[in-house]
Fold each of these.
Amino acid sequence: MRENRPTTVHLKDYRAPDYLVERVELHFELLDAGTTVTARLDVRRNPLHAAEGAAPLVLDGVGLELLEISLDDEELEAGSWQVEEERLVVHSVPERFSLETVSRVHPENNTSLEGLYRSGSMYCTQCEAQGFRKITWFVDRPDVLSAFRTTIVADRERYPVLLSNGNDVASGELEDGRHWVTWENPFPMPCYLFALVAGNLEHVADTFRTASGREVALRIYTEAENIGRVDHAMDSLQRAMRWDEDVYGREYDLDIFMIVAVNDFNMGAMENKGLNIFNSSCVLADPQTATDAAFQRVEGIIAHEYFHNWSGNRVTCRDWFQLSLKEGFTVFRDQSFSADMGSATVKRIDDVSFLRTVQFAEDAGPLAHPVRPDSYIEISNFYTTTVYEKGAEVVRMLHTLLGAERFRAGTDLYFERHDGQAVTCDDFVQALEDASGVDLARFRRWYRQAGTPVVHAGGRWDPEQGTWTLDLRQELPRIPGQDAPEPLVIPLRIGLLGPDGNDLPLDCGQLSGENHDVLEFGETEASFTFRGLDAEPVPSLLRGFSAPVRLEYSHTPARLRFLIQHDSDGFNRWEAAQRLMQRSLERATRIVAEGGEPRLGRHLETALEAVLRDTTDPRQDHAMLARLLTLPSEAWLGEQGETVDPVAIHHGREALVACIARRFRSELFASYHLLRGNLPWRFTPEECARRSLLNVCLGYLMARPDPQALSLCREQYANADNMTEVGAALRALVQSEYTDAADQALEDFHARWRHDPLMVDQWFSIQAACTRPGALDRVERLLEHPDFDYRNPNKLRSVIGVFANQNLVNFHAEDGSGYRFLAAHVLRLDALNPQVASRLLVPLTRWRRYGAARGEQMRGAIDSILASGKLSKDVYEIAAKAVKPD
Ligand code: TRP
Ligand code: ZN
């Protein structure tokens, strides 16, 4: 907490560390009244700075009570060192020495969930990015790599399981009922990868045989009541390990790999070396309690954290500005893995939907920053969709430009060249460039320029010559405080459809990529001419969403329908449907705002009719059909115009949904009955697809009062054997006008699952998302519910987070009540958990997009936060950037 303005850290000020820590020996005594941490650091002066005079030794430390300090086993005299705010300075030190500190920390009072803290009955840690300094004095920066040896001492009864990084090398009993275990990690690592867990945990064990024949022990630890829910995580882990060997040639390196599930966690999961720690919501899954989406999330996050062992741990970041080096690359890797496990097209659609709503919004607002930011106040605020998801798109573009084979040669060189090092995004690109021979100098601009490029495209058909010319212009946003942008290299995957809907051969002379279907568009303007055409083609542009840009190309509705029907690129079939729906939605929103009744346009009606017909065809990909039937989200619609009116968007969309439901009532019932299988639950791509389409049908049927739909919905709620169907039915009931049925189901759900925190989270979030009138009152009552826990981030996200991010019509209520509600909770939470508080604040920062009246209310809410004298750096940075004049 601070009174004065916090300082900004700049990339341009990077300087290699003055001191390196080669070895760390840690000794933890876990006691109820506080934990003592003894740290012995083998330090040496950084030879890089040999030419300069010796600098004082400066160690980071936050909230530590220093009990003892000695250098080479001699107690340090007062005056030769001093503790400043968040620093320990030793004025003069030799070339090499060991420094030992003993300090006390209080995990039992740590509500920030950063450093060493308690979650339920266990101890655990979260060190990334700068939490290790809350555990002991250290050079807390990622370019200091050390060999760790960690001993944990604790009561044997209460904490039978004691875990840390690496392999366990020794253990023993003490007379007083305590015991100890020593762990050793032979791979030098930065301290942000340190982890410790102590608790009364059970585990499931399995093994993995690596490609080179080593056997690795795999263990997943949870509290006793959850141990039956880790099979899917274990299976996902084994598949991820195999996949990384097959696709990237990366083998696991230690003898043991452990995962621990904890209930209180600020983010999804953490890749600590050999000891991943997971939010229980991202590792536990069984059919009764987890939706298919949750199963997929577990699979993806297990893979993500596992993949970090190479992209992040063996090769790590030089400084936190390079965060996307590990995160963008690892997200790209986990997306590719998930695509290989199921439908690649549907995975791409889901990833792009997320990118285009959340990341595009970030890139268009006051928090816009490049994939490699150039400054920060609090690094925790930079674990963003830009660093993660746009960063993954940048790596994906490199993959597209180089092709799979050269890309693999590049990553091989990257891992070989930089194993054991802390490097930059530039080193990554350099390795790809060196291995492929492709000049990537201009491509690097993607890392330093913020904002979403707009690509304006137009086509010219020349019937005489039989040529079709594509004219492209890129428009790059100017971001306040940043240099004028330079043209980006945009890989534009393209297809041309002939009158029969088949792909025409592309004869352009400037195509690259594995399939010779990628245009490298790297200037402000460019034109590409395709020859040898008999008739005007229908272009399919930006196939697979080959670059993170907004494409402006206007297709007529008839052509969009043609693309929905024929495009060989599944992503663009979906994209065409989205654009067709978007037009209808914009029209519906206008009509409803004027008090009218919207109609389904002819084109959308015909398109939906065809898709609904396909739902009865078992050879169709039902997951794809489910997406083709789903209207663009309110959030995405809000991203389109200049100013957003979330209330109008909501009512327009609801009206169109009802319109579709009315027009296709009998088709929807027919499809629903065909899809409502009665085979026992299985987690296969086909079954997930069937369930998602089933739920889309149910959603439409329940969109208007319809007793027949109600009885189907209640039946699904009562009889389905899996949470995908039960949860969707409950959601539909809660959202419907059948409030008695909804209350009954909610009560039933709670009675059944009240003992299970993750289920209570779902119960909360279904209610917090309900857009019916009185939403804020309901949300406030949920906060008073005995099962709500203000210290648990999952609970906060389920109620406050869901309300502010998914219940847009109520969060943006005209009277500003939603904004004041959020601001009050951000302030209250900031005193407990700044990281979660600053994330909850983000929706308010977009105030400039909501028109004068709403914008003023939103801005007022941010001002009320800034008026508080004692904000964390986290919340201060977001709030201050939000109101900075542009
Ligand atoms: N490195 C983690 C990941 O993406 C992210 C993470 C987990 C994190 N916990 C955190 C980031 C706490 C900041 C603070 O895999
Ligand atoms: Zn990550």
Note: The longest strand covers residues 19-31.
Amino acid sequence: MTGRDAGRVVDEVVETIAESAPEIRQGLVGRREDADAENPSGETQAEADVWADELLADRLSSIDGVCQYASEERLETIDCGDEGGLSVGVDPLDGSSNLKSNNTMGTVFGIYDDPLPAPGTSLVASGWVLYGPITTMALARDGVVEKYELTGDDRNLVDDDVSLPDDPLVYGFGGRVPHWSDEFEAYVREIESDPDHKLRYGGAMIGDVNQVLTYGGIFAYPALEGNPRGKLRLQFEGNPIAHLVETAGGSSTDGSQSILEVEPDELHDRVPLHVGNDELIERLEDALE
Ligand code: F6P
Ligand code: MG
């Protein structure tokens, strides 16, 4: 696919997700119960997870130039177009366990120019929708991160060059503390002991990473005892998040290399995820060495 064609497909994917977001938000009402099913990672699905996945699958797979749709909520990819098109990977409702308590959630997407599973170096664009007090979209493409407010009818650009603030303020770390490695725990204690830092953890990766993007800092869902690959999925969460944070001037690591360099084995692979200001990620890699 030529650069111009790829640009047109990215535009359509982004526009489709932006237009679907207010509808997804509205459709959460009445779909907060469990669906009596599990996703391929063994997590209980909410009715809203299944519904949002079907809605996005229908719309994104019918875009001319999209050849694959894949999601955290379904085992197999949908092959929907000629080889050589772009592949879209989504986490339709990131943090959907927050439905019960009515807290922040999001939709995460990555647009790859290779069949999935693919490394993050194949991403041509990435982004997320954040269902907070208002609905916003962050989009990374062509080396720039933009932020939009989605009003329902329009997508209003509110920041045309988002970058991580230089001085880190917030931190959030997932997983149970007894399951952290000694090295990771020692690093966390150091971060916590700095009076310039404060804790933010809301149980939805998108909400927590958006705090880092807004205020500077670090978010991690690390390797755990019993789960050495952590919890988050490389194709649907790790790669798009790492691509967006790196494009905004920050760093990502799986512990020893950028998440974008991690070679996937399977579509639903997990990855230990750490993203944030360069200096904090460098210190983390040193601590985990
Ligand atoms: O998608 C997985 C996810 O919901 C992330 O959004 C979030 O960061 C994490 O799980 C929360 O996990 P836990 O409930 O273990 O804190
Ligand atoms: Mg998720």
Note: Residues 94-95, 97, 174, 203-205, 221, 231-232 surround 6-O-phosphono-beta-D-fructofuranose (ligand 1) (CB under 6 Å).
